[in-house]
Structure formats: C-alpha cells, structure tokens
Write a structure and sequence with these properties.
167 residues; 5-stranded parallel sheet; 10% helix; single chain; 6-stranded parallel sheet; mainly beta
Amino acid sequence: MKYTKFLGIVAAAILLCGCTSKQFKNIDSSTDISTSLTSSSDNSNGEVIYSSSSVQAEYTVSEKHSISASDTFDVYKDDTVYIVNGGELTVDGKMTSENGGKIIIENGGVLILNSEAQLDCDFTIEKGGKLIIGENGKVSGSGTIYTFSNDCIENSKNIESNIKITG
C-alpha cells in the first residue's frame, strides 16, 4: 500500500514539473508552439508538442505557428523540421540548430526569422519555399543553405558570410 501511494506521488510530481522527455512528432495543433522544449501532456492527437530528448524526430509545420520572443526554437542533431505547403513558422525568439539537424522548406512553406538564428544544420529551401529574414533578424553559424532558386531568401544581407549558400 505504501509503495502504491509513493508511486502515485512520484507520478504526480513528474506531471506537475513537466519532467518527461517525449519527442514530438508533429507541431501542428490549434495553438501556437513555444519551445521550453519539455512537456508532460499530449495534445488531442496524442502528439507531444515539446521535447528535450536527443532521439531522432520529424516535425511538420502545415499551418501558421509562431515562437514568441521569450522562447527559443531548437533543432537538435538528427531532428528534421519540414515546413510544407501552407505552413508558416514565425520565430520571434532565438533559434538554434545543431550539426546533423535538418530544416526543409518545401514549395509553399515559409520560415520567418525575426531575431537571432544560429544555423549549424543543413537547411534546404525547395523551389517555391521562402526564407524571410526580418529587419532585426540575423543568421550566423556554420551551416549550409541549399536553394533551388535565387529569389527564395528575402533580406539575405542579414546572413553572415560564414554561412554557405549554394544553388
């Protein structure tokens, strides 16, 4: 009896502190995403929205979402973020990415960076995709941006010279 009660208390404490490390599989939901990157709750589709795990994951953005100025959007090693047709991700907070991660903006997808972005991952902008760097946006790091057309990046002057752009 004491053991069961102890497990119940521990489970409640874990749920309250958000100390799980489940991987989210899809960030599409009815609410904006923010990225403290840990969560203990699933949305109505059974998908966890945040993550602190290093397990490989795929993220799909197919609607408008935003990361607030007080949050950080992280792309970890082995993560892949897809921004698909109709998807738009606006990052007002900081963005970081690790070597081995991937960001893919597909035809009709848009990524808007309004703050500092550290790109150390592979970044692909397919024909018809769009990367918009806001007036206060700044892209640095050691990553590579692969493009399929010359007009897919707006405000490219805010990309530091150590980022390789090919295409």
